[in-house]
Design brief:
Elements lengths: L3 H29 L4 H26 L7 H17 L3 H23 L5 H19 L17 E3 L4 E3 L3 H23 L2 H11 L11 H21 L1 H5 L9 H14 L5 H20 L3 H15 L3 H18 L2
Antiparallel strand pairs: 1-2
Helix pairs in contact: 1-6, 1-13, 2-6, 2-8, 2-10, 2-11, 3-4, 3-8, 4-8, 7-8, 10-11, 10-13, 11-12
Length: 329
């Protein structure tokens, strides 16, 4: 009979597979109905799910609350827009975002990891606010209007080509990228490196006795999370055709933290499910009232009080029990 860790891993894989199947079915239905709005909305939910994934890597595994992940998401979006306006290449924009995430994450991490706790949260918040104001006042980047006129591109997938203007096609491309980011994150965090990050979150004073430097581990996790956020941000201008300084503001970082708390901290997949849930709530409640943010805030407080482990804390144990019953001889 499999052990608890094996059952937990199978439950995670099953939930990710369920999200993937649901995404494929949603794309097929949307394409059949010639839908644009809901497919674009779902694509945006996946993109911001990538941002939430980066927050969960820091908060759920390393124990670092970042209030400035929008810095890397927004800079990835701006860099992607600039690349696409010069050379309309999906893969070049993605590669530029990956490289920028490594460099910017290293710079920001060296500054931020010097402190812990609330001071780390405040430093990440301050870094994002400073860069946001610089971008907001830079005319060459469109200032308060942002960068407009990002061209529609054709994404070469080898055997086929997908236009970013195709709602269903681009949704599938984004779904593949975000699931890929999740898979890479899950694989890396399941290695001894991931175990060290969990140990760091549990008791960072004992980690040096294992022969590892806490500063190096924190910096590595910070850079890793920055890359995930930056790569996710590169997809945004392909979807909307523009970028604005609002992507760098605290509201973007705050929404990502809320998404992780709703989905389940330290689950990775909770970030993706939480982003979908939050997007659906905004869309549905927004059609009922102009004060949808107040209602979402109340729902969020209720979720924190009654579901402290988030949506995954409610769903995953049920899946694990079903798998345990199936595995019994």
């Amino acid at each position: 009979m499999p052990d608890a860790l094996t059952i937990a891993a199978r439950a995670n894989h099953l939930l990710v597979a369920a999200l993937l199947v649901a995404g494929l079915a949603f794309a097929a239905i949307g394409a059949a109905l010639n839908d644009t709005f809901y497919l674009r909305l779902a694509t945006e939910a996946l993109i911001f799910g990538g941002l939430a994934l980066s927050v969960d890597i820091l908060l759920g595994y390393t124990g670092l609350l970042s209030l400035g992940q929008a810095l890397y998401f927004g800079l990835g979006a701006y860099l992607s827009a600039l690349v696409l306006m010069a050379v309309p290449s999906f893969w070049l924009a993605l590669a530029a975002g990956l490289g920028a995430g490594l460099v910017l994450g290293l710079i920001g991490g060296i500054i931020a990891i010097r402190v812990r706790g609330v001071y780390f949260a405040l430093i990440t918040f301050g870094l994002a606010q400073v860069v946001a104001k610089v971008v907001y006042n830079t005319r060459s980047l469109g200032a308060s209007d942002g960068l407009l006129g990002v061209p529609i591109i054709n994404i070469d997938l080898g055997l086929a080509s997908v236009s970013s203007a195709s709602p269903a096609g681009f949704f599938l491309v984004v779904l593949a990228v975000i699931i890929g980011l999740y898979a890479v994150s899950a694989y890396i965090l399941d290695t001894p490196f991931g175990r060290l990050l969990i140990a760091l979150r549990a008791n960072d004073r004992r980690v040096p006795f294992l022969g590892y430097r806490t500063a190096s581990l924190r910096l590595s996790s910070f850079v890793f999370a920055a890359v995930i956020a930056t790569v996710s941000g590169t997809l945004y201008p392909m979807l909307r055709g523009f970028v604005s300084p609002e992507l760098l503001f605290f509201s973007t970082s705050g929404n990502a933290v809320i998404t992780v708390l709703l989905g389940g901290v330290g689950t990775l997949m909770g970030a993706l499910y939480g982003s979908v849930l939050l997007t659906v709530l905004r869309s549905v409640i927004g059609t009922w009232t102009e004060h949808h943010l107040m209602i979402i805030g109340l729902l969020f407080m209720g979720a924190v009080i009654f579901l402290p482990n988030g949506l995954m804390g409610l769903v995953r144990p049920t899946v694990e029990r079903l798998l345990m019953r199936k595995a019994r001889p």
